[in-house]
Batch of 2 targets.
Target 1
Amino acid sequence: MSKQAVFWIRDDFRIKNNPALSYATNNHECVSAIYIYNNLKFDQKREAQKWWVSKSLTEFGKELQKYNINLEIFNSDEINFFSKIKKEKDLSVYWNKIYEPEELDIDKKIISFFEKEKINFKFFKGNVLNEFNKVNKNDGTPFKVYSPFWRNAERVYLEQVPEKNSIIKKLKKSKNFFNGSINSDKILPKNKWYKKFENYWIPSETQAETNLNQFIKNEIGNYGVDRDFPSKKGTSKLSPFIRNGQISVQNIFEKCSNIKQKNISIKKYINEIGWREFSHSLINNFPQMLKGNLRKEFDRFPWVKNSKFLKAWKRGMTGYPIVDAGMRELYETGWMHNRIRMVVGSFLVKHLRINWQEGEKHFRNCLLDFNAANNVAQWQWVAGCGADAAPYFRIFNPILQGEKFDKDGEYVKKWVPELSKVPKKFIHKPWEMEEKYQEAIKTIIGKDYPMPLVKHEIARQEALAAFQSLKKN
Ligand SMILES: Cc1cc2nc3c(=O)[nH]c(=O)nc-3n(C[C@H](O)[C@H](O)[C@H](O)COP(=O)(O)OP(=O)(O)OC[C@H]3O[C@@H](n4cnc5c(N)ncnc54)[C@H](O)[C@@H]3O)c2cc1C
């Protein structure tokens, strides 16, 4: 075997539980970690993630140095980059998989090139509990319903022979293998809007581990209830770390399973990791859903094209406080609470009847935790056109959702400060305040904050009629 190896960083910015990195360091004298920044992928509206990746590279680079591993960053597409590796360089290449059809396609092309050129390589399981093709129904077909999927997936995972704990070895000397490495700052988006993220996130493996430990110590016990209230710290906020592999889902699963005081909340939390597994299984077994509706009858849905409404939704100016708070939280922090993602999603596809793909695109651009599997599967879940989806006719009432999950309006007031003087009674329907009252508190609806774009009851009736029209065709 060659003395030198390349660890190809994909979505796995971590030292712990990183099989490809561990294999490389335990079998070679000298290892370089390379990251290939393919701007074609990021320029397709993944601006927020450019920030996360850039910062992650800086942090991860420092960690790798402790093991005498240099980090080299290249602006290229993956196939182009690897096609220049020559056998004479005597390098072996290792990586962990990403479970997206496009990425698996890239792997295939690279593998075929390496085989042809007789370059040594090996790839490893990525950041999932199970390979998606390991969990199928008895007849060998993939699951389309979450509960039986997860029952099986959990069993398959627990029955697996435990993987050897992959420990990374410190090497004697470091070395760069290639020319033309760029600085991680080059990846940052041009628009400095990302600066705000620095107030909320530290994209590192250490931070991920700290957050998980704190969540297990303080919050997981009440997760089953608190996770629905956006003003509480009720969820783990680990999603951007999981997405970029700063923490592995195996690590999360093991730590949660080892909690001594078992309670239903812990199970509920692990079930969410199950939803992530389900989404990955769906997009790989039904890759057509990355481009359109899984349920084909929705191809005939009479979506409305309304750029004014779409813009108002994106900017958090719909006139429905709970929706606007969510959209502003997203823009400010690169993250949004799950309950509110469902509310804003439902509002876009049902009240405004705008195609879910517009929402998916906006989330892709703004979410630090965007991943194709979760985003597409969840948007289709909200729209009713996906697997095991919420039925289209179940339409969230944004006023009631607000009153139920943000009773005191704490969340709304945090993100929509122009409503800070509105009393509790009206915080989710400020247009119902008497004019005199609006004047007294200097909050004029229609001037300081918009009137609702649509009336809930009318929008609901129109959405139901549109849905009915699918059945007639
Ligand atoms: C319209 C819409 C779009 C979404 N897009 C994404 C996305 O691009 N990326 C993403 O990671 N999640 C997405 N989600 C799922 C969910 O909202 C986030 O995973 C969650 O809010 C992240 O916060 P958390 O880490 O505090 O979650 P926790 O409640 O602490 O859950 C722990 C982990 O479980 C996983 N998880 C939780 N809920 C879900 C879910 N419903 N489906 C799949 N996995 C889940 C995540 O990896 C999460 O980090 C979307 C949901 C909706 C309704």
Note: The chain has three domains: 4-126, 127-163+204-285, 296-472.
Target 2
Amino acid sequence: MPHIVTIAALKGGAGKTTVATTLAASLHAAGHRVLVVDADPQGTALRWAAVAAEAGRAEGVPPVVAMTAAALRTDVARVGAAYDVVVVDGPPRLGAEQRAALLVAHLALLPVVPGGADVWALADTLAVLDEARALRPDLKAAIVANRVDARTAFGRALRAALAELPVATLKASLGQRVAFAEALTAGAGVVTYARGSTAAKEAAALVREVLKVLGA
Ligand SMILES: Nc1ncnc2c1ncn2[C@@H]1O[C@H](COP(=O)(O)OP(=O)(O)OP(=O)(O)O)[C@@H](O)[C@H]1O
Ligand SMILES: [Mg+2]
């Protein structure tokens, strides 16, 4: 049975695909068998893998497949059976894919970027998480701070704001770094795109903490 990690946020641009591809590419580079499931009809994770293939670097990223809500519910365990970890990149709005992606997960990671409106929007995501947990009480969840910039007041205030919420925030966070944006566009993970960078170190810390939460 693979560990299934769903990246969920109802707000667009919170960093779902960045966290999904960063986590998956780092696990892949570390030798874990990883499958990415793109549950977002926008298909950004699929594009990420396609760019890697076009550039002749397909082996640098894990395989990515698209799944509808129905396929997630019925097939994800079977499709993911040959993998250690399945990372599901969720859609930015409430719907069948969002619900299915949470219902099949062992761990939900909820990215949030600094800013009042973004932290408020997290309440909607937490409400959907609560619905999923009513059916799946064993579903673990953690917030991931993304695009953190310690030079801004918003960046500094984020942890305090998140500490008020009923779901714990991971210690690991991703900073506001161009390497994350460039790696996504280049069809790579920061672990190879920007080896040894602060972004790569943040990715490694995220992987360590996620594996610990999963008990993997
Ligand atoms: N830590 C970061 N540093 C720099 N840029 C980032 C970071 N996280 C995300 N971005 C950029 O912000 C934009 C939105 O990120 P991303 O696509 O990961 O969000 P998303 O939640 O998947 O969005 P959508 O809801 O559209 O699927 C992208 O252009 C991405 O490159
Ligand atoms: Mg996305």
Note: Residues 9, 12-18, 40, 42, 44, 92, 146-147, 174, 176-177, 180-181, 184 surround adenosine-5'-triphosphate (ligand 1) (CB under 6 Å).
